[in-house]
Amino acid sequence: MTSQAAEGPETVVASRRSKITPEREREFFDAVLEQIRECGYDSVTMEGIAASTRCSKSTLYRQWKTKPQFVAAALRASRRVRFAGIDTGSLAEDLRQAARAAGDWSGKDTRLLQALGHAVTSDQELAQALREALVHPEIAALEEMLARGVARGEVRADHPALEYIPAMMFGVLRVRPVLNGQYADADYLVRFVEAAVLPALGLA
Amino acid sequence: MTSQAAEGPETVVASRRSKITPEREREFFDAVLEQIRECGYDSVTMEGIAASTRCSKSTLYRQWKTKPQFVAAALRASRRVRFAGIDTGSLAEDLRQAARAAGDWSGKDTRLLQALGHAVTSDQELAQALREALVHPEIAALEEMLARGVARGEVRADHPALEYIPAMMFGVLRVRPVLNGQYADADYLVRFVEAAVLPALGLA
DNA sequence: GTGTACCGGTACTCCACCGTATCGGTACAC
DNA sequence: GTGTACCGATACGGTGGAGTACCGGTACAC
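^ inputs. structure came back:
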C-alpha cells in the first residue's frame, strides 16, 4: 500500500523501493491484528510482531513510523464489506441474511473493536482507520438495505425506528459477550432480527 | 471493605489494622476508576494513583496485592443500582425512565466498560467485579421491570422480544459513540425506547 | 508516657519495551 | 560482474512501571 507502484500489468516488481511483497505485508498485518485481538492494543509490541513474523524491528520501523500508524495501515488493508451483495428483494430477508453474515465474523471483529475501542480515543488516524475498516462499510450496507426497503414501500421513509436499526444490530452484537459470556452467533442474531428488529419496523 | 471491622455503633475506630478511613479508600477508588476512564486500564499505574491521591505506593501495595486486585476492589466498592426505585406501574413508562437514567450516567460508565472490556478477558476476578458493578445490577433491574409488565398482563410471558430488551438497551448505549461519535444521552435513549423498544414489545 | 504499627516518602532492583544504530547477507538493477 | 539498498539480526541506551525495602514521623492504644 505504501510501498508498491504497480506499473506493469503482471509483474509486481517495478523499481519499487521496498522489497516487502504484498503477501509479506499481509503477514505483518494479520499478525498485528491477531495480537491485538488476543492481548489488547496496549500490550501489542513492535518487538512481538517482529518476532512472530520473523522479521526485524528495523523492517517495521522502516515502513511505518509508529505503532498507531502501523495498526492503522493494517486496519485499512483489512477493509472489506461483509454484507456485500445481499439484496434479496425483501427487507426482512435482507436483514436476516445480514444477521447471519454478521454472526459469522462476530467473534473476530467484536474482539478487535473491543480491543481498539479505547486506543482510538487518543489517536485520530487510528479512529479513522477503524471506522473505515470495521464500522462504516457495514453501516452503509445496512442503510442501503433500509433505503431499498423504503423505496419498495415496505417501510415508510419517516418510520422512527429506521435510524436505530444499525445501532441495534451492532449493539446487540457487541454487548452479547458482556451479558451472556459468549459471542453473538448467527442463530442468535437471526432470532433477534425476527423477535425485535422486524417488529420494531412493523414488518412482523 | 477489606480493612474495617465496624464494632462500635458510632466510632469507626475499633482495633482496626489499617488506618485508612473509608473516605480515604474512596479517594483511591475514585482516582483509579477516573484514570481508567481517561487513559485506559493498561496506562493506569500504581505510581500515578499514588501521586494523584498523595499517598505512597507502599500504602497501596499494603492494602492490595496487585493492580487487578486493586481495580477489582474499586469496582466492587462503586457498585450501585442506577435504575433503583423505578416502578411507575407501567412498563412503557418504566422503560422510558430507565432510558433517562441510563442517559445520565452513560458517558462515565460507557467509558469505564470500554476501557476495561479487554482487561477482563485475562483476569477472572476483574471480570467478575465488572459484571457485579456495572452490568448485572442494571440487567437485573431491567428484567424486574419486564417481569412486572408481564405480571400486569402488558406483555405476554413468551413474547420473543423479551429476552433481547436488555441487550438492546445496553447495546445501543455502548455503540452510539462508535457510530455517531457521541455518547448516548437521555434524549437519544428515550427516543430509542419510543421508536424501537416499545414497538418491538407490541406496546406502541 | 510509652509502645506499636501504620502512613507517606524515597530509593532501589528488575524487567520489558521503544526507537536507533550497526552489520553481514543477498536480491535485484544495470 | 558490480553496485546499491533493503532485509533480518542483534546490540544498545533510554525510559518507565512493577513491586520491594527502608526510614522518619505520628496517631492511637493502653
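Chain A has eight helices and no strands. The domain at 22-77 of chain A is CATH 1.10.10.60 (Arc Repressor Mutant, subunit A).
thumbs up if we can close this ticket
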